[in-house]
Amino acid sequence: MAHATIYVGFTVPQLLRGASRIFPTHSALVVLRHSAFCYCTVNGTIKSKRKMDHLERTANNFRQEIISQAKVCGMTNESERVKRLRLAVANKDFTFKAGQWVDFFIPGVSVVGGFSICSSPGLLEREGILELAVKHSVHPPAHWIHTECTLDSEVALRVGDLHGYQEGKGNGYKMGTVKLYYSAKNTSELLFKKNILGLMNAFPGKITCRFHVTQQSSQICKELEPHVTEGRISEKDLEKHVSKDTLWYICGPPPMIESISKLLSNIGVPRNCVFFEKWW
What we know:
Layout: E1 4-8, H1 12-22, E2 27-33, E3 39-42, H2 54-57, E4 62-63, E5 68-77, E6 82-89, E7 101-105, E8 113-116, H3 121-127, E9 129-135, H4 140-147, E10 154-161, E11 178-184, H5 193-202, E12 207-213, E13 228-230, H6 235-239, E14 246-251, H7 254-266, E15 274-278
Parallel strand pairs: 1-2, 1-11, 1-14, 2-11, 2-14, 11-12, 12-13, 14-15
Antiparallel strand pairs: 3-15, 4-10, 5-6, 5-10, 6-9, 7-8, 7-10
């Protein structure tokens, strides 16, 4: 049995690190919205609440026992607002699975950060390297990464996730496809676009992507231009993918999640086929 999977507002790093797990068992349509990184909530309801720190919000979530030291061994700018951090992990027993985050402990900073991992478990296994993509904000850990962190800065990491990781066996599933819709203000804010184009070339017909830009003012490069649509992701874009075998995943700010969820309901997508990333 093959399944089609729709991701609406799904974060790019999770697509990249999870691609090897997604399309061996599902056919996927993915809709992305550039945004910060978060954890997955299945068929959840968004409720406004007072802001809590990362440890308070995730106090009841699964965590590994190992806390490992790590050293910053690389830093690059994915966009004007997002920095990609490359970390050499000291503890050889430190592991993670696709979809998990790290608690991020910084010496001298009392607030503990929580960031999704944007590299694959394979990179950690091969090279002892883990990567994070962190959006600039006034939140102390993110602010430290953007203003004080340097090569050879030392931090500590601990893995956690929403429910505790369970390995899926994939019995009874056939290889499907991933269809990605990814929206941002302009092409400079489309994080990991080169990686996505690389996946499209590596898996022709299995992974496809439409990049949507809403405020593009500069010329779009030739490599990206065939894959770019100006304007928001619309009902017309998504309705052609509705079927009983389609699963939909959403990631983005709460208004975007609410808007796309309503759109999917309007075009007949069952609630139990919609999954989204809940913003803290």
